[in-house]
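Subject: sequence -> structure tokens, single chain

Hey, anyone have a minute? Need the predicted structure for the following. Not urgent.
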Amino acid sequence: MIALNAAMAEALTSFKERVDAKINAGENKVAAILEVLKADIKTCKPIRFDGNGYSEEWVLEAARRGLDVEKSCPVIFEHYLDESSIRMFESTKVMTAKELAARNEVKWEMYVKTVQIEARVLGDMAMNHIIPVSTHYQSQLIKNVQGMNDIFSSALFSTEKASRLSARNLKLIEEIAERTETIERLVEELTDARRVANRIQDIHQRAIAYHDTVCPKMELIRDETDHLEMIVEDGLWTLPKYRELLFIR
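Reply:
Had a minute. Here:
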């Protein structure tokens, strides 16, 4: 919000100065305003987009226009220290270059702390909620398959029928085993990635390391968990599901 307000203040100040300059040169007030507006409209044309600004469509279009499409927060924060950014903040008397640098230190520190807490919580949830619940449901499926085999493998039925009727549960048992194994491995890799990042002294580089090495592990754990959420029996799942969050009262 501070950056937006500073940019607005700079734009309005620049607009008034240019209009006043034309008026002082003898141009009509309305004509001066319209002329400056036309120039500003042409200047901002590269960033105007009538589609969904949150979609991948805009990312591709922005890249085609030569605009910055960086998605890393620690790297994006660097732009606060760009020459044009410093000039904007100083011209509007909002912050000096030293104050911007100090705020960036805080931003990088906050980013690291936030991701660090989220990573620890995610690891705890994965190991103490997601995996135990998934394996508990897996055990129920195993008992079901064993019971089906006991019934349908008798003399009255064929072994082939037992296998056919248990095929779906067997597939779920295998998928749960593979996904829980993957989650456990990813949690270990997530912890190792945090340890490596925490040894970096420079807070800026540590923030970049957290974005580049820690966050991707979290995304992979999230993906595996989302699949398990769709498999495990609803009554056993201890965490709120998306539909429950959407329609909770």
